[in-house]
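It would be a great kindness if you could assist me with a short task in structural biology. The matter concerns a single protein, recorded as an amino acid sequence and a row of backbone structure tokens. The record follows directly beneath this note:
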Amino acid sequence: MIRAAAVVWSVLAIAVGVGLFMLKYEVQGLEDELSRLNREIRADRAAVHVLEAEWSYLNDPARLRELATRHLGLAPLAPDQVSTVAQLPLRPPPSEAPAPAPKQDAPKAKAPPLPTPAPAAPGGRVMAAMPPPPPQAELASATTRTVP
């Protein structure tokens, strides 16, 4: 019985030793990955810092003003370029003869013909044609409503 217990304890000790060995290497691998990720984070933060500095330089108002003057011919507003709403010209008066209103009893205009199928383009694709716009009279009658 003593020999069986010694064998069981020996097997158990070897299993625990192998488990600890595997655990040690797994922890080392995770620590290596953590240090790699920390290095990447530091590098990304440095890159963000450089990009923020570049953004500040590119958006400097003095630099933008100089570029606008040099390349676009823009200049700051002069006081005589600013006006108020009261200084704006009024709309021209409407024409004397108003447009005739469509008759309610007038026969409806004939519907436009349906578009014919377009020929196939290279590659077998069919190019769709746009139907012609409706006449103005149909458009006006379609948008007016009578309320009882």
